[in-house]
Amino acid sequence: MQLYLPIAEVSINLFLLLGLGGLVGVLSGMFGVGGGFLLTPLLIFIGIPPAVAVATQAPQITGLSLSGALAHLRRRTVDVRMGCVLLAGGIVGSAIGVDIFRRLSEIGQIELMVTLSYVIFLGIIGSLMFVESLQALRRTQRNQPVRRRKRHGWVHGLPLKMRFRTSNLYISAIPPFGVGLFVGILAAIMGVGGGFIMVPAMIYLLGMPTAVVIGTSLFQIMFVTAFTTVMHATQNYTVDTLLALILLLGGVVGAQIGAQIAVKLRAEQVRILLAGLVLVVCLKLAYDLVVMPADLYTITSA
Q1: What is the 3-state secondary structure of 34-71?
Q2: What is the per-residue pLDDT across 105-123, written as a single tens digit (0 to 9) for each?
Q3: How many structural domains comprise the chain?
Q4: What is the radius of gyration, based on Cα positions, of the chain?
Q5: Which residue ranges run through the membrane (predicted)?
Q6: Residue 298 is assigned to a structural domain of this protein
Q7: What's the whole-model pTM score?
Q8: Which of 81, 146, 150, 255 could share a disulfide with 29, CB 3.0–4.6 Å?
Q9: Domain assignment present for 302
């Protein structure tokens, strides 16, 4: 069944879009990521203009993050206080990112910027996560004692300390705010919830337990992407409502399934699966940057 999307100005198969939304929903529930790092490239691959793909991700990620966050709230695996600090930084970062997005769109460089950002960040984060998770998994299989991450580092020496009881942490609010700020910028420019950056940062930088990280990440992503949706819709006019609703329908169902799967996996397995997925998407985008396109020139209307 073909469906015409007015803002994107393309015709796309309805069941394909539902399937993509469902796949990303499962990833959201499993890994605590919004799923935009995967869905945005996939939408570009099937013909959605990059500017529309990025902006339309925000409302879809909002909905499936809400679905996943509710599932984790019922299990009490969400640190609400930590989520609020991350959210404060995320709102500021999102406003900055939308302005950068608008300026890049005006000079015609948004597609290159989006793709390069994905390749760089996915490559770095995916590689670091894969190596660390593989080492942890091997130690577990050999019954070797797992080396605990340092609970006290430079983060604990900063001012403005807060107690996060759910995460069993007493650290400065500055690093969580900074992480949220950075992720907010990425959410606006790259069309992602930022979970692929936030989840590793919460585990390795802030020292949060993996069981709490996933739900807290979804809690923060939910609000940041909602704000990003409003900003893109009112400033850039690139949100395709029909496309977002279709993706959201599949995503909400998938998020519940993913949350159930996550409970049955060990922390090391969750991290290594996420790292592998991140690297696959990174390699595909990098390949598309260097391969010669079928059409070297495209004529567009002014």
Answers
A1: CCHHHHHHHHHHCCCCHHHHHHHHHHHHHHHHHHHHHH
A2: 777 766 677 777 777 877 8
A3: 1
A4: 19
A5: 12-31, 37-58, 78-98, 110-131, 169-197, 203-230, 242-263, 269-287
A6: no
A7: 0.63
A8: 255
A9: no
